[in-house]
Amino acid sequence: MLLRVKNLKKSFGSDTVLDDISFDVKKGEVIAILGRSGCGKSTLLRCLNGLERIDGGEIFLEEALITKSGAGYRHWTEIRKKIGMVFQSYDLFPHMNVLNNIILGPVRVEKRSRKEAVAEALKHLERVGLLEKQSSFPRELSGGQKQRAAICRALCMNPQIILFDEVTAALDPEMVREVLDVIKGLRDQGLTMLIVTHEMAFAEKVADKIIFIENGKIIETNTPEKFFSSPGTEEAKRFLNLLGNQAG
Amino acid sequence: MNNFELVGIFAKASLVTIEVALLSIAIAFIIGLISAIFLFYKMPVLKTLVTVYIEFFRNTPPLIQAYFIFYGLPKIFMTLDSFTCSVIVLALLGGAYMCEAVYSGVKAISVNQKELAMAIGLSRLDTIRYLILPQSLAISIAAINNNAIFLTKEVSTMKLILLPEILYQAFSIISLRPDLMIPVMVLMVICYLVILIPMSYVFSRMERKIRYAEFGY
Amino acid sequence: MQNSGIENIIKAFPQLLGGISVTIKISIIALVLSVILGFTLGVIMTFKNRLLQGVLRILLEAFRLIHPIIWLFIFFFGAAYVLNINTNDVVVSILVFTLWGTFETADLVRSFITSLPKSQYESSMALGLSRPQMYIFVLLPQVVARTIPSIVNLATRLIKTTTLVYLIGVSEVLKISQNIIQLTYYRNPNSYIPFTMYLFLLIIYFIICYPLSLLARYLEKKAMA
């Protein structure tokens, strides 16, 4: 089991945002996390790579506990080499061109040689269709291009899991497709991914498992076919009805 | 010279500082206001004069400005005492900065306001009084206050043109009685803090009040 | 024209220029040190230690509130008295103006760093960058471009304010000009040389500072883009 989450609890002040979350992730599995806005999906992802400290429960990566108390910045730096993340706001570094954005991690964090990092970066860029943009700066790129570059940046660290936090939410509809295609390609390569998204059709096609969260609790875990056609819980039914024709 | 006399000397010196500061700030503000109006209405000759004035006073050392007015002008004009000179120098210097402060607030107000006023036939004076100034004040007030504090601090520079303010007295006493170094230093710093800290505090409260009245937060 | 003293000024031009160069040198040294120390201090001011920030805040306000001329006075005469040493006028000048410039730069750098969007921190962390790496490769480069106009502005202010070192006896342009004025009076008691001399100095300083002002304004516009 690659990732194990047990009884995760997270509060902001008196607000309990995540309550007793438990699930497992197998190697090569793609899990889509769905739910209304504000139900805690993003917070869950951020707990997995230490951007948020949890208030209860445990997280195991490759059977090793990663949320031990007293875990400082350096501990999480090690974890983040294995768990990568792509944000909704892409957050490329504006003062570097695309290529440098991508190789910063490999060269500085993993201490790989620049030549090697560049070769790998170019490979990824080609696969997402951004090879000609390698010397461009983020301000010259469209939203979709920036997001694809951000995905390359995460990929170049060769993580075991990548977390996608609503990566298409800030994009114009035309650009959503190109990013989703990239993610689909990654799934075909066997990358383990946790995807928080609102794109229901996409979730149905790409995910192996759906985790539906409401009010900080996991309401239902199911396969995509079953979840979208006949969900088991009342809340899931209400959620899917709310989203109307988005599924299928 | 006992401690009592020392405090007395510094108290008087502080008063001199405050007088010079207040006068300079007031005059500088008026100069700044008028200059900003000239800039705002783009009055042909006056606009250039103001620009030259501002650039000159902002790009030359205040000390040499003071020397010029105190030692240089009397030779072809008339002799001025250090108090008057200090006020003139600081008012002119401050005026340049005040103009920038006021004008930045004025610029921020949409040009439409000026044209709107002209369209309904509002006189230029009334436009300024009722439309432009009230709105721009909220924006400029922080810069205006900073200039006021800057001018107050700059009064100590006037020691060098023989203004009997705090630093001047400290320097004189130390030259005669170096043994009084520590009490003099302490008194000097206390005097400046007593003047500047309340000033700073009053200004913050003023800024907060004006910002609330104008913008509601 | 006889009484204007202009010939003496022209004759003494090299010395006057020498005097100005003394204050310019002090300004340059203070500027360079201020930038280096200021950036370091600015980064330190973004750390989250309450006690440290409190102390630094007080030091910063103290230096802001009290005019450099007072600090010159305190450091030159006060230190000599208390520490019983011969304070060197130029060294004290450099010290005072470096401290002044450092605190100004530090506050600037700190405010620019904290104004960067939180997402820059988070994507750096998500990549696994260590804190020093995050500062060196991501945060500071973005901040440096924005500080440059203010640094040019600081240079101008330093050049104007270092004239005050006359107070502690540095042999700079004001002192030299006074010598020339005295000499002129000796030969020609009717001279109005102070008028010409100080006007002349004002013009020289203007020629030095105005281009810097324009440069700062131009850089500011570019940084905004």
Detailed description of the structure:
By secondary structure, chain A is α/β, with parallel strands linked by helices. Chain A has helices spanning 41-48, 73-82, 98-109, 114-128, 143-155, 173-188, 200-206, 224-229, 234-242, and strands spanning 3-12, 15-25, 30-34, 56-61, 64-65, 83-86, 161-165, 192-196, 209-214, 217-222. The radius of gyration of chain B is 20 Å and the shape is flat. Chain B has one domain: Orthogonal Bundle (MetI-like fold). In chain B, helix 1 (3-40) packs antiparallel against helix 2 (44-58) and helix 6 runs antiparallel to helix 8. The mean pLDDT of chain B is 88. Chain C is mainly alpha-helical and 225 residues long. Chain C has one domain (2-224): Orthogonal Bundle (MetI-like fold), CATH 1.10.3720.10. Chain C has nine helices and no strands. The model of chain C has no long low-confidence stretch (mean pLDDT 90). Classes of the chains: A alpha/beta (248), B mainly alpha (217), C mainly alpha (225). Chains in contact: A-C, B-C. The B-C interface holds B 55-56, 58-65, 67-68, 71-73, 75-76, 153-154, 156-157, 159-160, 167, 170-171, 174, 178, 181-182, 185, 188-189, 192-193, 196-197, 200 and C 65-67, 69-70, 73-74, 77-78, 81-82, 156, 159-161, 163-164, 166-167, 174, 192-199, 201-202, 205-206, 209-210, 213.
Under CATH, the topology of chain B can be stated as MetI-like fold
What is the highest CATH level, the class of chain B?
Mainly Alpha
Number of helices of chain C: 9
Beta fraction of chain B: under 5%
Radius of gyration of chain C: 22 Å
The CATH architecture of chain B can be named as: Orthogonal Bundle
**Which structural class fits the helix and strand makeup of chain C?**
mainly alpha
Shape of chain C: elongated
Q: First CA to last CA of chain C: what distance?
A: 51 Å
Which segments of chain B are poorly predicted (pLDDT under 50) over 5 or more consecutive residues? Answer: none
